[in-house]
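FIELD: query
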Amino acid sequence: MARAPLLQLTDISLTFGGDPVFEDLSLVVQTGDRLALVGRNGSGKSTLMKVMAGLVEPDSGGVVAGPGVSVGYMEQEPDLSGFETLGEFAAHGLDPGEMYKVERAGEGLKFDPDRPVATASGGERRRAALARLMAEAPELMLLDEPTNHLDIEAIAWLEAELKSTRTAFVIISHDRAFLRNLTRATLWIDRGAVRRQEIGFEGFEAWRDQIWEEEDTQRHKLNRKIKAEARWAVEGISARRKRNQGRVRALQELRAERSAQITRQGTAAMALEAGPKSGRKVIEATGVAKKFADKQILCDFSITVQRGDRIALVGPNGVGKTTLLNMLIGKEEPDQGEIKLGTNLELALFDQARAQLDGDMTLWDSLTGDPDMRVSGKADQVLVRGQPKHVVGYLKEFLFDEAQARAPVRSLSGGEKARLLLAKIMARSSNLLVLDEPTNDLDVETLDLMQELLGNYDGTVLLVSHDRDFLDRVAATTIAMEGDGRATVYAGGWSDYLAQRGQDDFSESVVKAKPSKSEPKAEKKQQSNGLSFTEKHRLEALPGEIERLEAEIAKLEELLSDAELFTREPVKFQKATDALVQRHEKLSNAEEEWMALEEKAGG
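FIELD: result
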C-alpha cells in the first residue's frame, strides 16, 4: 500500500500586492525525498519554503501535511526572543534526556550553548536554529541556506549528518558542492512555476539549459508563424474577407500567446574593470606574527603576492582569516614581521558583513550618496567606471526594477544585498580585489558570471570563502589556516589542497578520530622518487598549466596581429600587450619549475 505524501501543495496562488509570486502551483514531497530548491534571487524560494512550513498563508490553494508528519523549518533570520541563551533556544521542546542531541549538534556546528542571545551574532543565532532542527529530527526538514555562516568543517559535519539521516529534506543553498553531494531530485522555481526533475543538483544546469533551448526554439517558431500569417493578412484579406475571418482570429490568438509568454530574467550586467597596472610585486609579507590575548593567529608567516595571483584563505571560523586579510591589505598591523604593499594599488573590498550598506537608506541614495560614485550637479546619475549613468538604469543592470530604487536596503533579500554591494564595487576600477565571503546568498547564474569575471580580471584577487566549488573554480593558490598560528600555502584550489594534504573527502574526515600528534603529516612524507607529496602534485599539474598558458598566448598573439587594433582601440591594444608579456613570463617560470622538478624526480 502506497504511503501518504509527507507534504502536498495544491493549486497555490500568492500575490504580495503586485504580480503573482505563484499561480496554480502544486507539488508533493514524499518520504525519502532529498530535494534541492533552486531559482534566481527574488524568484520566491524562501517564500515557497515558508508556505511549505505553514508560516505564510497562500491567497488560495491548500497545504496539507501527512497524518502525524512533523515539519521542521530553519529560516535565515530565526527569532530567539524570549530565550536567555542559545542553548535554551536550541533545546526548546526537547525532553531533558534528549539534551545530548543539542550538545552533539552544537559541537558539530561550533556554537556555544551558554552564549547569551543578547550578545550572539547573526551567524551564532543561525547555528543555534540549525542545531535545534537537527536535534528535533522531524519527518521533513526545510533548510533555507543552512551553510551560511558555517565554516568548511561545520559544513562537512552537516553534510555527513544529512547523508546518514532517513529524514526527508528540502534545501535552498548557494553551495553547489553541498547540493551535489546531498540531493536526489530538484525543484526549480522559474517565473512563478515549479518544475520537478528526478535528478539531483548535479544534473540541474544541463536540464535547465535544455528547457531554455526548447523555449527559444518554440518562441522562434511562433515568431516565424506570426510573421507569415501577418503577411497573408496584408496581401489576401481584402479579397476573401468573409471566408478568412477565422484565420484573422487565429493570428490575433497567436499574438496574444506571444504577449502572454513570460520572458526569462537575464543575468546581471556585471563588469569588472582593472585600473592602472599595479607593480609586479603586490604584497610581500615576511615573518608575520599576530596574537589576540592568549590566541595565536599567525606565527612566522611569509608570502609574496604577485600581480594577477588568485589567492584563497581557508580555515575554521575564528581562526583569523579576516585578520590575515586585513593585515595583507594594510588595514591592520602585525605584532611582528613586516608587510610591504606594492606600488599603484587600487583596492576594491567586498566585506562579509555588508558594512558598506546602510539598511535605512534607499537603493537610490546608497549609490548616489557614495562619494566615489557621485556626479557633481546630477542627483539622478552615478559615475560608473568613469562614465555617468542614470541610477535606475545602472540598478537595472544588476536586476533591480524601478520600483525597488526607492525601497530601503533592509527590504532586500540576502542575494539582492550582495548584488547591490557588487554594483557599488564594480562601479570603480581596481587592481586589487578583496572578497570576504562573496558567494553567500547568490544564485547559480550570478555565481557563474562572477567566476567568469574573476577569470578575466587583470588585477589580483584575495578571497575568503567556505564554498568549495567556488574555491576550485577561482583560486590558484590556497592559504590554509589550521589554528595555533599555523598557515600553510598550497598550490591550487580546495580539491588541490585536500590532495596535497593526502585527504580525498573532507566531509568524511570530520567524523573520524583525529590522528595523533606523532603521526607525520602527509605533505612531509617523502615519495620514493625524491619528491615530497606537494612537489609530486605540482609536477602532475604543471603540464596542464603550461598548455593553458600556451593557448592564452596564441589567442593574444592572434588579437595583436590586427594591424589596425592600436589605432582603433589603443586601450585594448595596451591591455593585450601587457597580458601577453605577463603570460610569457608565467610560461617561462612554469617551464623552469617543471624542469627542476623533473630533474629532482629522476634522482
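FIELD: remark
The chain has a mean pLDDT of 83.
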